[in-house]
Amino acid sequence: MTIAARYFPRVLLAGFIIFGAIAGSSAQETLPTARPGIAPVLEKVTPAVVNIAVTGHTAPQQNPLLNDPSLRRFFDIPDQPSRPTQGAGSGVIIDAEQGYVLTNHHVVNNANAIEVTLSDKRTYPATLIGSDAGTDIALLQIEAENLSEVPLSDSETLRVGDYVAAIGNPFGIGQTVTTGIVSALSRQTGINADGYEDFIQTDASINPGNSGGALIDFQGHLVGINSAIIAPSGGNVGIGFAVPINMAMAVVDQLLEFGEIRRGMLGVRITDLTPDVVEALNLKVRTGAVVSSVEPGSPAEAAGIQAGDIIVAVGDEIIEGASDLRNTIGLTRAGSTVAIGLIRDNTRVDYDVRIGNASDVADSGMKARSSSVLEGAELSEIPANHEAFGKVSGVLVTNVVQGSRAFRSGLEIGDIITAVNRAPVTSRSELAAALDANAGTVAMNVLRGNQQLFLIMR
Q1: Most CB contacts within 10 A, which of 240, 250, 280, 293?
Q2: 90, 105, 132, 136: which is the annotated catalytic residue?
Q3: Options 1.10.357.10, 3.40.50.10540, 2.140.10.10, 2.30.42.10; which CATH number does 267-354 get?
Q4: Rounded average pLDDT per 10-residue block, the chain, 458 residues
Q5: Is residue 256 exposed (0-12), middle (13-18) or buried (19+ Cβ within 10 Å)?
Q6: Class at the top of the CATH hierarchy for domain 360-457
Q7: pTM given for the model
Q8: Which DSSP letter does residue 59 get?
Q9: 240, β-bridge pairs
């Protein structure tokens, strides 16, 4: 073999190696320096999304016979201790300097202790500033250094089809990001017992544990607080709901000032403006809320609003329908004065109305009958974390004083009052009105667990 023949293969191989190195170096230089995605946005936002752990107690469940006074006097039955409970959810830091954390009411409802864990694993006890069941919003505060916050967006600028990301702690597995689009706006679902709903609907995956987490746009701005899902099969089916950040911040403002929501009241009964009404009255407007009646002595009557008027605006807000008006007035601070724009005889009329306090009306209704058939019973709307929430309409019995009239009539803690004299009631105010309209003995439909009862209240 010649010298050339012996060395040629090695020379050739070396040439391939050198060429490959050059080619590899050239290919590496032409690769993109960043992958497509929203990783840079999330790196700024995720440190401000926290995990929330709550501990509390729930009322004990016991045999209904043990509440019968005629039986209890024969036995020495000790009071049953309440049971400890644990829960988890998510939250969003909206003010790093003050340590304010926004979350859902149902995440922290009835909590004895609340603990917030940051993305860097630091853990702090949290103080509940205030909470509102009507919008399912709660505000916490922690004392910590070096916090991050999520900048707020204007949820009124959202459009169907906008890209969004949901951040939270589903099933307690750790911080998780899912993406999707805005599927619908101003969604009314009936999930919330109080009915103050204006949900952003999204197909970004939201699961248990995501409640209270952030819904952000792809610029990293907070557009909503993840609140609920529709899950017929028990898992995510791409229908999730978030409270718009504008609504949430309207609640936060009052929680910071008063520690509670002083919900506004106009004093009108309303219905949607339908196409047949528009045609019948030959109206020029196509949206609004029709005033069907005005409550005597209400702010609406004092301002001059009449039955048949069509409310089309509250301040700068355009009113699309009855639920829109209810949400707008309900989130308006009681005692404030707002401009109400309405149509009367096809002419625009504006009134300045001093908004009343809805709780005063509801409370006075309950107090008017508190010394009667429900004496000794404490009532509430069905909270969002209750197993009957969204499935049953009624009023929850949260406490019954032993020996009271309600106790003697057979009412128990955990009962859900669904009707009075067979007329359905869906809220405390409706229950108060039904009791006022039916003096004396009344019959109540009550749901106790899976059992339907018919109690005679004397």
Answers
A1: 240
A2: 136
A3: 2.30.42.10
A4: 45 43 48 74 94 77 51 53 75 94 90 91 93 90 93 93 93 89 87 72 89 93 90 74 93 89 85 80 85 85 88 90 87 89 90 83 38 76 83 88 80 89 82 73 80 72
A5: middle
A6: mainly beta
A7: 0.66
A8: P
A9: 202, 229
Active-site annotation holder among 90, 131, 183, 211: 211
The CATH 2.30.42.10 domain(s) of the chain lie at: 267-354, 360-457
Kindly tell me the burial class for residue 431, based on how many C-beta atoms sit within 10 Å of its own C-beta (0-12, 13-18, 19 or more): buried
* Known active-site residue 136: yes
CB 132 within 8 A of CB 105: yes
Which fold does the domain 47-141 belong to in CATH? Thrombin, subunit H (2.40.10)
The structure tokens 């840079």 sit at 40
> What single-letter DSSP state applies at residue 258?
H
Selecting among 105, 106, 221, 386, the annotated active-site residue is: 106
Decide if 106 is catalytic.
yes
- Cα–Cα dist 441/458, whole Å: 5
**What tokens were used for 33?**
């320096």
155-258 belongs to CATH 2.40.10.270: no
DSSP 402-424: TTSHHHHTT--TT-EEEEETTEE
Whole-number Å distance between alpha carbons of 40 and 318? 37
